[in-house]
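Interim report, section 4.2 (structural modelling).
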Amino acid sequence: MATPASVTLSKVVALLTTAPSPAYSVYARHAVADLDLPSITVEIDSDTPIETDKAFYDGSFVHNHAILTSIRIHTSYSGGVEKFGDSVAIVDAIVTALNENLDLADGYRTIDFNVQTFNSEFAESKSIGAELKLTVHKVEVYNN
Amino acid sequence: MSNTKKTVLESLATGLQALDSVKTATRNLLTPNKARDAVPYVGMIAGTEEVLVEDATDIRYGLDVDLLLVTKGDDIEEMIAEIKDYLYDTSAAVNLGVKTIRLIGQQPVTLIEQDGFASSRIVVYIVYVASKGDF
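Predicted structure of the assembly:
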């Protein structure tokens, strides 16, 4: 059964998989044994239902879910050194793609994203790179 | 590309043996007399595979491998240099079908005065992926 979290994951992966430049591989989980470099991995951190935000005289809209998504850029395996230039180029490509596609359709919308860190080691994938955090809201509109 | 410890070592032996300064490279060790007959010779001692990442279909391993180098006298300098160049070249990992090869260290050259043979040891760390279906 599709949940807001699983739908968000597939939408973000699909968005970032479309003709990436510079080229990278995309995986829908952080723990990948056969991890190519460079690559990105996407995983849902949390899916938090939130209360009604606003109501209008002709209807109301409800922010049903706030879905925190982690996007990691991998440019080296653990023990190596982050290829900083590659990380920056991929982060730039991701930020551009997110900015140009804030509306993810079907009531899903990117509310906020920011780069958390560069030169981090990720335990799940034994790799080094950068990480972005993305907040997506699943919005349902009710017209009375 | 899926690998096993054996295929990684065999591929590395094949790659090293293609170098001009290496006559014999093998994943197994030769006895001292056979090694001297086979110089310039590279033997291997592989450590225990370290599981780095495991998912539903694959396992990524890290493996320490000691390369034992034996040859005649000063020829070992050229041998060391060529093997290091080979390991530093990023195409080596691609050609061997592994994720990465890192040169970890090298022991000093030992020269045996009475018979003119020299030896050294280069330590590498290889990251490779095995498919669970291959077990």
